[in-house]
Amino acid sequence: MEETKKQILEILQGNSRLQPAQIAAMLNIETAQVEKLIKELEDEKIIVKYHTIINWEKVTDDKVTAFIEVRVTPERGVGFDTVAERIYRFPEVKTVYLMSGGFDLAVLIEGKTMKEVALFVATKLATLDHVQSTATHFVLKTYKQQGVIFEDKEADRRLVVSP
Amino acid sequence: MNWNQKLSPRVKSIPPSGIRRFFDLVSEMSGVISLGVGEPDFVTPWHIREACIYSLEKGYTMYTSNYGLPQLREAIAQDIYKNYKVKYEPKNEVLVTVGVSEAMDLALRAVLDSGDEALIPEPCFVSYSPSTVLAGGVPVAIPTTLENEFRVTAAQIENAITPKTKVLILSYPNNPTGATITREELVEIAKVVEKHDLIVISDEIYDKLTYEGCHTCFSSLSGMRDRTILLNGFSKAYAMTGWRIGYAAGHHEIIAAMTKIHQYAMLCAPVMAQMAALEALTNGEEEMRRMVEHYDRRRRLVLKGFAEIGLDCFEPKGAFYAFPSIKKTGLTSAEFAERLLKEAKVAVVPGDVFGANGEGHIRCSYAASVENLSEAIERIGKFLKNIT
């Protein structure tokens, strides 16, 4: 059962638009079982959300992304979790990771302009208790996101019929 | 200048591949979903391409030895031993070729004399019969049956043997049927081979694309190593069709004979393809297994889809082809394929292209995306409703 769940996760990670009936056919199990397992995976928060990867650069110029290195002083008794929560609840914050190495939290922020992002960092992030310092890196171009190449030139170049 | 009169009768006697006619038809249309492609829909894994690029940057643009790069031959021999426990000496029992097609051509030309017969279980890959003719031999078709899931039997082989029989060609997992064959069945075939002193040419290009049971390498059977010319390559398992890189392994005397032809025709396989193949064998297993998993899932999707739309199909356990029967429609394979293309915009290959007993079937390749496969199944379903 765990192996089947894992396979469903792999399939959905590759393409979350696949229907349960298609997944069932690919795994040679019943559709009802796939639906049940997906429900369980959702309830267990293993499947957190169904998401679409968008190349925003093709849609609008009004979008800036920045990667912020945040050094914090962990809070006694609860470590990094509390300060991380105070950060990740801002809607401007898109991703937060706890990191080993030279800084503690990696924070990905989106805003309309560089100024907007810089102001957010200066007035909301840097001023938090426990935040010691920040370093802001603006994203200039996205090549690949969550395993997906954005401008993939590898189209299907096969001959339409071959032996 | 009357060229037709000057052409070799042997060349004139072989028909152009039936695939070509359908290729021309499909190429003229738009919006077609093609299930007619006999190659992976994956691009060669990046690390394999990168190894080739790196080798070019380092200046690997020369000829290699006729036999191929020593390190590649070593890797091939190790791969065969690791998988099937058959030992081949890399120095003189492995020949790197320009794909398995060249290897088959070399093998046939090296062993067939005028009038020698080659037994060819059909349906089969389009080149076996013409290559036999070009080598001066006589192709003898052994029709395999749907009832036996297109596996050739020892009895069928024995019944086809004459004093002129010299070669048996085996090709499992099979193009176009997707059929595989069990070790037990191969053991029975090996007895017939031994009894009648035959040479076996075993095309095992789809060996790693085996979804149920284990693939048995014919050379691994008792007494068969020295009777078998083992052909394999990188096209299907590693998505390297356009690289044109394969190999033959066999007794050093047959490999030496094949190398004589190879050296005067090809000289050597391209060095950059050899460097890529070496990387495939050294580091490519994970990517290969990932692709195989994808094919297996699509296989199940296709089989279930065909069952739901009423298209009769036995379960293929290898390669990436399904070979459903369209007999109940009353149409010939060619008629069915042409109408399916024009009326539903789905391209498949008519089964008669692969041998006379392929008539009544179509070959559907599931080397295609899940979306395309699902859409194609739906279109075929509507088409079947319309014509019956």
From TrEMBL, chain A:
Keyword Zinc-finger: no
Domain HTH asnC-type: 1-81
Keywords: DNA-binding, Transcription, Transcription regulation
A molecular function (GO) term: sequence-specific DNA binding
Entry-linked PROSITE patterns: HTH_ASNC_2
SMART domains for this protein: HTH_ASNC
Keyword DNA-binding among record annotations: yes
InterPro entries in the cross-refs: AsnC-type_HTH_dom, Dimeric_a/b-barrel, HTH-Siroheme_Decarb, Tscrpt_reg_AsnC-like, Tscrpt_reg_AsnC/Lrp_C, WH-like_DNA-bd_sf, WH_DNA-bd_sf
Source organism superkingdom: Bacteria
Protein name according to UniProt: Transcriptional regulator, AsnC family
Species, as recorded: Thermincola ferriacetica
TrEMBL record, chain B:
Top EC class of this enzyme: transferase
CC cofactor: pyridoxal 5'-phosphate
GO MF, any single term: transaminase activity
Documented EC number(s): 2.6.1.-
Keywords (A to Z) from UniProt: Aminotransferase, Pyridoxal phosphate, Transferase
GO biological processes: amino acid metabolic process
InterPro entries cross-referenced by the UniProt entry: Aminotransferase_I/II_large, AspAT/PAT-like, NHTrfase_class1_PyrdxlP-BS, PyrdxlP-dep_Trfase, PyrdxlP-dep_Trfase_major, PyrdxlP-dep_Trfase_small
Domain Aminotransferase class I/classII large: 31-380
Homology family: Belongs to the class-I pyridoxal-phosphate-dependent aminotransferase family.
Protein name per the record: Aminotransferase
Source organism: Thermincola ferriacetica
Lineage start: Bacteria, Bacillati, Bacillota, Clostridia, Eubacteriales
